Amino acid sequence: MEKGGYTRGVGSGVTYKRYFHLPRSRQATDERIKLLQTQLYNERREHQQKDVLVKKLSTEMIEKDVLVKKLSNEMTKTKGMLSQLMNQLAAQGVQLNLSSQLQVASDVTPMGAYEVDET
């Protein structure tokens, strides 16, 4: 800072504190620190909540991935069994029209949909 209360190259009346936006009082500095601490606390809390959510979603994705792999394996086994059955039927001279069989299969009631009368 130069003599006369101004900063060189900026002009008269512009002090070092004003040019660099330094607070004019200790109270303003304390208030700014409290504000920044509150913002930091809120951002940390929000970050922790997001971390918990990401971990939960990651666990769910792993569980679903395992389920999809199990279902895929079951479908592969079923496909193999159907292929063997088709080969056996073909060896016995039986021919099937698969398109009509697929339509019938889609009309069948799913398992577990039947009511049981226990009286």
Q: What's the quick description here?
A:
The chain is an all-alpha fold. Helix content is 67%, strand content 0%.
Mean pLDDT: 77
Shape: rod-shaped
* Discrete helix count: 3
Q: Which strand-content bin applies to the residues? A: under 5%
| N-to-C series of helices and strands | HHH
Radius of gyration: 38 Å
Query: What's the helical proportion of residues?
Result: 55-70%
Overall strand count: 0
Stretches where pLDDT falls below 50 for ≥5 residues?
A: 112-116
Main beta sheet strand tally, sense and closure: none
| SSE class | mainly alpha
Cα(first) to Cα(last) distance is 100 Å
Name a few traits of the molecule.
119 residues, mainly alpha, 0% strand, rod-shaped
How would you describe this structure to a colleague?
With 119 residues, the protein is mainly alpha-helical. The chain has a domain at 25-91. 67% of the residues lie in helices and 0% in strands. The protein has helices spanning 16-19, 26-91, 98-107. The model is unreliable at 112-116 (pLDDT under 50).
Chart the SSEs and their pairings.
Elements: H1 16-19, H2 26-91, H3 98-107
